Every structure is written in structure tokens, then in C-alpha cells.
């Protein structure tokens, strides 16, 4: 399979597959993301069946994302100081154990809300620790000229995993039940480890004693780095607006499927798959058009188009139309996120990539703020009204960010990677990058 991908796709928009290590990593990640997306779908449906409450469905999502708020920055430091492949393998093992817990409890009909939350949190901890390493390892596997392409193809593995995982997952749940569905998700995580084992990350590990104080110091350093460079801060804030206030609509897809569209888990999976297809289109757009100008355009178009699609989605009561709007929402969300990631990775040195990836993951950790909001709104006014309100908030924040941060509208690139002053002892390099706001 690796040789086939290299032979067929090792050029043009898929040129990063020229690297065998990248190809193996990509296949490994597809398995891991499919497993994760199945977990999100199954968890939401189980919560809805147990409680009949949109608010509890959102709270279960909060239990899965909250660890990212606490652990992502330390996870980024670990990604910079330890072997990223080892971190990913350990994270997948923990995920497998959590999934097997779901299998056992559902098989013996002993699943309760508290156990759902505990297992979700365990899987969330593994995801929070592993994601910075998964994001930061890509530049170690491809050449600098292929970096944007590699990041885009890595985004395809996320959106592709969402598409396939959601599409298959809903059908598995409806046809074979929750225990079997979670078992398949665990098997995909095992497959992810198998593909990852041969990968050589060629990672330069920072030297020094790896103490808790060092981890804390590096964590603070990463946050200070983002605040110091306004173009990095702008990229993080516009992505954060989409993540915190836009992405929570995904927690309500099971509610839309059952209460608005009057269908089952298969329909919920189809909505997730449609969003995944849109996300894949956004990823392919960056893989194909990766110039600074194209990246800037994707940030603007995706950032504005995503919340508009959410508002339209909230008004639909027809499955086909809902899937269409979910597709456009997925495209806008992914285009904005991967374009901000690609631009940030272009700007910074390798020694800061893990911490910057961790800050992005920490932003996901703040998503429970949005989960809580949409859960409460859905409980009070229904999922459609809640989604429309969250879409409007996201649109307003995106427009404000585009107005405040000039760098989001710029295509300029620095002469020296940001963070290199850490090695050279020079402060203020690429000073033009620190745009005034």
C-alpha cells in the first residue's frame, strides 16, 4: 500500500507521499482519526439514549475536550523534548483501553452516565497529549518546500477520517449495536499503531533535563511566543473563534438527526460524513494552492463561509439539504484551520512547533465553553436555534479579528524563522512580523 501511494500519487498535489515515512504516518493517522470520529459519534448517541437531553450530550463532549485545556501545552513540550512517535503509540494504547471499556459496559448493559463521562475523559486525555505530536511531526517527514502540502494532506487524513468514520460508524451502530461499534473503533486504533511502528521521525530532541520545572518553563515560553508575535496571535485567535464557538454544532448532530430529521444514528453519521467531505475539499484546496496568497484567501473565505453555513444548516429540516449545508460548513471550517496552521508552521522554527501545536490543541480544550453554551441553548430553545446563535457569534468574532489583525490580510513572509533567536541569542529578528494591531 505504501509503495502504491508513492508510485501513483508521489507528485503534484500529493507529492508528500514521495516520503515513505510520511506515507506510513498518514495511513496510521487515518486509522487513529477514524477511531476518534467513531468515538465522538457513538458517545453522543449513547448519551442521548441514556438521558434524552441535548445538554448532557454537550456535557459528554465537554468531558472529552476538557483535558485538552489542561494537558495540551505540556503535551506540546513533550513533543519538543521526547520522541513524538513514542508519545503517539502510548496515546493510542490508552485510547484502546478506553474503547474496550465502552465495549464491556455496553455488552453487559451496565453503561451509566458517570461511566460514560469517565471513559470519555480517559480517551480525551490520550487525544490531548498525542495531538501536538501528531501535528508537529509532519515537518520532520517532508522537505520544507513540501511543508504546506504535507500539512494539507495531513488535514485530509483528519477530514477523511471524519468522513469515513462517521459514514461507517452510524451504520455500524444501527446494525450491530454499540458494543460492536466501539470494538471496531478499538481495532482501528490497533491498526494505527501497526502502521506507525516503522516510521522514522528524524526528530531533533532538545537537550536538557526534563523536569517538571522545565516543562512549565517551556509551556510559558510557548504562550509568550504567541503573544509576542502578533501575526501568530492573529492566526490563533481567528482559529480559536471558529473552534470555540463554531465547532460545538458537531455535538448536536445526533440531536438534529433524531429530533429534527426524525432518523437514527445512520443519519447522524451521514451529517458528520458530509462535514468530513467538506473538510476534505478544504484540505485538497490547500494541497493544490499553497502559495501565501492562496493561504490568505482560504483564511478569509473559510472564516466567513463557515459560520454562514452553520446558520443555513440550522434552518434545514430535510436530510439532503442539511448534508449540503454541513458540507459547506466543513469546507469553511477546515479551510480556515489548516490555512492558519500552514501559515504558522511556515513562520516558526522547529523548536517551537510542538508548543505552537499544543496551543492550538489547547484552543480545542477551550471548546467546552462553546459546548456548554450550545447545550444550554439547545435544552432551552432547541438545537436549531442554538446552532443559529452560535453561528452568528462566530461570524461576528471572525469579522472583528480580520479587522484588528493586519497580518491575517497579508501575504508577507519573514526572512528568518520566528523562534530562531532562541538559538542565536538575537531578540527581535523578523521584527516586521510583529505587526501592530
Report what the structure shows.
It is a single chain. The chain is mostly helical and 437 residues long. It has a single domain (16-201, 211-409), classed as Up-down Bundle (Growth Hormone, Chain: A). The chain is built from 18 helices and no strands. It has helices at residues 2-9, 20-51, 54-81, 84-107, 113-136, 138-141, 147-176, 178-196, 212-228, 230-246, 253-260, 265-288, 292-314, 319-347, 350-365, 367-381, 383-404, 421-424. It is globular. It starts with a helix and ends in a 13-residue tail after the last helix. The model is unreliable at 422-437 (pLDDT under 50).
**Which percent range describes the beta-strand content?**
under 5%
CATH superfamily: MFS general substrate transporter like domains
Helix percentage range: over 70%
Average pLDDT: 82
Low-confidence parts lasting 5 or more residues at pLDDT below 50? 422-437
C-alpha Rg (nearest Å): 20 Å
Q: Under CATH, the topology is which?
A: Growth Hormone, Chain: A
Shape: globular
Q: What is the name of the CATH architecture?
A: Up-down Bundle
Number of helices: 18
Number of strands: 0
How far from one another are the termini? 48 Å
Domain count, please report it.
1
User: Main beta sheet, described?
Assistant: none
